[in-house]
Structure formats: C-alpha cells, structure tokens
Amino acid sequence: MILETLETSFQPRIYNIAERRNYTPNFASSDYETNFVNKGTPLVIDNGSYQCRVGWATDISPRLQFDNLVSKYKDRKLNQSILLVGNDVYTDATAKTNAKSAFDGNVVYNFETMESVLDYIFIKLGINTDKVNHPILMTEPVCNPSHSRKLMSELLFECYRVPSVCYGIDALFSFHFNGLSFDEGGIVISSGHTTTHVIPVLGRGVLGQTKRISYGGLTSTDYMLKLMQLKYPTFPTKMTVNQAQHLVHNHTYVAEDYFSELKEYTDPKKFAEKDRIIQFPYVPPANEKSEEELARAEERRQEQARRLKEQAAKLRHQKLKELENHLEFYMEIKTSKSSMKKAEFIAKLKENRISDEAELDEFIQKTEKSVQRARNKLLGIEEVEIKEEPTFPLVDIPDDQLNEVERKEKKKQIASKSLHETRQRQREAKELARRQQEEEKRMEEQRRQTDFEGWLSELKHNYQNQLDKVKSLKRKKEQLSDRRSHASQLRMKSIANLASDTPQQKRRRKGQDEDTFGMDDNDWAIYKEISREEDAWEEEEELTSLREYETKLLQYDPTFLPEHTFDAKNSVKNSLIFMFTRGVTPPFDPENFAQMHQLHVNVERIRVPEALFQPSILGLDQAGIVETIGEIISRFEDVDARKKMIRSIFVTGGHTQTPGLLKRLEISLGSILPAGSPLQIIHAKDPVLDAWHGAALWSRSSEFQNYYVTVEEYNECGGEYIKEHRFGNVYYKT
C-alpha cells in the first residue's frame, strides 16, 4: 500500500552519469614579453596531487588550473610519440589509459613526470627564454620528505636555472588568505585529494602536533567505486573512476547523526526522497515492428497452424487405416480356424507372434476399441468412458481345479483384487475426509455468523500460532543447513542409526565406540539430500495451512492487508536489499532496458563521507577527524591556547566541499568540548583556490624576500637547505 501511494504521489528525478567533468584545455599566455619578462615577478605554483594551479603573484586568479597528469605514448597511425599534460590528457582515449601522476600519495616521487609538468607550465605562460628568471613559490604537503624537496630544488635550480625557490604548506597559505591571524591561533583542517591533515596554529603551524588521516577525495572515490561494484556485480556497464568521482562530488552529503539517518533510509517514504537514480548511457534495442509487420506475422502463424492441423488430420486418417488393416488381419486369422486343423492354426498363431487363441481375442478386442476411438475423434464425438467394475472369477477357485494357465491367471487376479480393494478404501477415506471437512466448514460458517468477533479472534490466534510454527521451521532449516550446528549433528546421527543394520542404543557406555557418520564429506552429501526432501515437504505443508488462514483474514478482517501476508513480507521485492538496489519508484521492470542501466545511490550518499569520522568503515586503523582534533587539543596544557585553537577552526581543501560537513563538525566537536567553549568553525572562501591566493598574497609582501633560497645559497648549502618561516614545513639550517 505504501509503495502504491509512492508510485502515484512521488515522481523521482533521474540523474545522468558524467563520463568525465567538463575539461577545458588551458590556453597559452601572450603577454609575457610585454609585462613579465624583465620584472622578475614571482611565479606561484600550487602543486597539488590532484590539480596544479599556476599564476603570477600579481594575478587575481591562477592562469593555469589543470589535473596534475602526464600521458606519454606512441601513436601507431602517425608513427610518432605523443606527450600530453594536464586537461589535454582527456581529449584522447589512449592518452587517458596511459595517464600517470608524479605523486605517490601527496609526495612527488617521479621527477621525470614532474619535469614534463613544469615544461608545460612554462610553455603555457609564454616563457621562451633560455632560463626562468622568476622566483618560484611552490606549495608542498605537511612533513614533505627532505629527499623529495631536495630533488625538486635540484630540478628547479639546475634544469630551469631559477634565481630563487621557496616552499610552503598549502593549508597554511589558505589560512592566511582568509584573514585569520597566526598570532591569535586556531586549528586548520585540510582535506585534499589523498589525505586529511589537522594542523594546530599558535603563532605559526605547530607541525610537531600535526596529525594525518589517510582519507581524502581519492580514497572516497575508490570506496564509492567498490561499494557500487559490490552492490551491482552484474551491472551491464563498467563504472570508471571518473564516474565514481562524479557520484562523490554531486550526490554525497555528511549526515548530522549517521545512525539516525540510516534508520530513515529504511522508511520507504523517506527513502524515495533520498534515493538518487543514476542513469548510465546505453544503446536502446531495435525499434518494435509496425502493425503491418505484426499482421503479416500473425497471418504466417495462422497459416502454419492450419498446415499443422491438416498434417495432424492426415496422420489420424493414416492411423485409422492402419488399425482397420490390423483388425481385418486378426479377423481373417480368427475365421481361418474353421477351415484349418488345430495344429496348423496354432502354427499360424506362432508365425504371427501370438501365443494362443485367448491372446488373439484380446488383440481383436483392443483393436476394435482403438478403431472406434479413432473414428469418434475424426467425427468430433467426445467419448464418455464407462468404467466397469472388475471381476476376479478365479480367486475363489482352488488351485487343484485349475490348469497351469488358469493358475497363473489366478495369481494376477489376486494381485489385481488386492490393488482394487486398496484403491477402494482410499476413495472411501477421501470421501469421508471430504464430508468431515464440509461439516467443519459448515460449523465454522455457522459460528462466524452467530459469533463473528469470537470467531475472528480465534482465527487470528490460530494464524499467529501457525505463523510462529513456520518461522520456527525456517530457523530450524537454517540451523540444519550448518554442518557444525548441534541440531544438524544430532539429526545426522539419527539418520545414520536408522540406516544401520545394527542400530546402537541411545545411551553409550564409557569407552564404547562413537558413531563417525558425518566425518566424511560423502556422508554430508547423503544427509543434505535426505533433509532437503523432508524439509521441503514439511515446509510446503505448513505454508499451505498458513495461506488458508491468510485467505480468510483477507476476506473478513479489514485490518489485514495484502502486504501483511507472509509471502509479501518475505518477498524479495519487499526486502531492504531490493529497495536499496532497485528503489521503490518507479516499480522495477526487468524488461525495461533503461532501468537495467540505472544505479540507485542511497546509503552510499552518507556512508562514503562518514569514513572521515569513522575510518574503521574503510578498514583504516586510525582515529576519526573529531577524535583527532580532541587529541590535539588535549596535548596543550595551556587553557588559553586551547581556547584560541577552538575559537578558529578553519576548514579548507577540495574534499571539504561535501554538504553538511561543517554542521557535523560543529555538533560532534560540541559534544566533546566543555560547555560554553567558544567554538567557531570557519570554511574557506574557495577551498580549492585559496591556497594559491594565499601564496600569491604572501609572495607580494616584503617578508617573502627574506625566506626564499637563492641559487647561491643552494650551491653553498645543498638541496636540503631551507629557511624557516611560518608557512614552512620541517626546517633544516646550516
């Protein structure tokens, strides 16, 4: 009833899956020689593991923003090597399959690929000089290994001959751009492509107390992909990583209370509102035939049926003719007896494989009946078979008064008489049971009319008892299907004992050999075959009685509806699994080609982002984001420092754009902090670009010139040398 109401009142919206996001290739800059060639303007590179954002320090927004990928392959048609970088990778199918990243997690490890990315950046910016004459400010992750930074410095200084390089943490640059003061303190939550970092800020980033959670946008995409593959193992279309990413970006949200939200998904009405139907592309089947083609096909079928009828009638005529010929042949043999000697007649019978005259008479009688039936069938006459009561004349005659043939016939008649009497008793028992059943129905109908309430109450009571019996039978069946269960082993031993030639006593004395039936797999196979047949018969019998009660309740009890029946409750279509995989509206039709190419994203919408709060969902042995923040705060003994941090909890990174994240953080953190704590959660203006904007803002300040490493310092101190500043990572000083 609920599903029928939903079908009429709620019209679901179907969302199309995106093969990939709208990638637009970056264009080359044409103003380098006029505006930047002689100024030495700093070049800001936000080098993320997902996207790279590049621009001049004086730009309002980054000039280049592309996926940090490189694809190198050989085109066999053109017979030349192709190198594509960034968004250009998605313009060719072969390029997508050969795409590689310079990152392992969020750390650069493949510097050959990184060199291709930097070449792409400088070419797009129009830098056509023999070296790059601009200071470079590049972002890096928290606790970037010194070896990776050393190789990056070596690449920039020795390959591109840049004058100076400076590194900083992207999350702290975003903190700075949003107007938050390092001196006032705070906590930075940076959730990016591969990881989530929680950085306490007191005057500068306290990197010694920073925590990392191995969950980010890439992890959530992989998790969504695995959930969909497990949910739809036979889906006709293969889901790609980009499609799973589309589901994460467009259809997930963070639940305020995860477990309460899960319960809401079990309500069909609320489920229909939350369920997202995702339509995958498909090729529709061929167009249906026109009415003229259907009419011609129907004519062909009728013509074929007419020919088959003619062939059947012809075969019946041939069969009748054959039967008449057989009858005529048997009658000729019968009439030839009068003109032949007995020995000749018997010899003739033997020649035609007839044992004696009695068998000949039996053949003639059967053939006459067959001829009559065939003629009636041709004439369309329906035969009414009249069964004659069988007689057994030889049963009561003693054997010494019978010859050998008659004694054999007597044995047949004795067996036939016994079988006939058994059938007669069965018919009488069935008739008696039928009369008793009719009498019970009459008495029940009489009681229903005189005491309806009492009758209905008793009917409900009997139905409940029968329902409990069926449920108990199903539980027993589940236990017996388990080879190691106690009930299964007892039953197996009972079967073995009954089948044994020397059944053992129920109680065994101490030291007596135990029964070993069931130790062998062959014994288990025999047991399963026996129990399957017995359980199926018993279950069907109990279900038949249950359905009889349900039929009466549906007829006389207005509160008992079709969806309350046992079959409806246990139907696959009414199960939660079916609802989660096929939805509630519109009704699933396996013949509908479009529905076979649809995914239903429902509990996954909250399950995927919930892993940030409960990493154990993914199998990660790590604390969630709220526990991590609580642990970091507890490590600071100064109460004022704690208040400073929770007063400005700053959230940045592309993965923090999931709806509901800030509200969930506020609720969860409020539950672990002391009452009245000055909790304030601040979201970045642009979680994706604010790191670049903050780096560009700092590179325009005079402070920037004091912290970059020049080429002279690099040559003197080596690639691991870096100057300490508030945006820096792990610092090495000479």
From TrEMBL:
Task: Report the GO terms under cellular component.
Answer: nucleus
Q: Which Pfam families match?
A: Actin
* Record protein name field: Actin-like ATPase domain-containing protein
Provide ranges: composition bias, Basic and acidic residues: 418-448
- What does UniProt list as this organism's lineage? Eukaryota, Fungi, Fungi incertae sedis, Mucoromycota, Glomeromycotina
Q: Where is this region: Disordered?
A: 408-448, 470-519
Looking at the keywords, is Lipid metabolism present? no
InterPro entries named in the record: Actin, ATPase_NBD
Indicate where this protein is primarily found. nucleus
**What does the sequence similarity comment in the record state about its family?**
Belongs to the actin family.
Q: Does the keyword Nucleotide-binding apply?
A: no
Subcellular location(s): the record lists: Nucleus
| Gene Ontology biological process | DNA damage response
What CDD domains does the annotation carry?
A: ASKHA_NBD_Arp5
What's in the keyword line of the UniProt record? Coiled coil, DNA damage, Nucleus, Transcription, Transcription regulation
Q: Which SUPFAM superfamilies does this one have?
A: Actin-like ATPase domain (SSF53067)
Coiled-coil zones: none
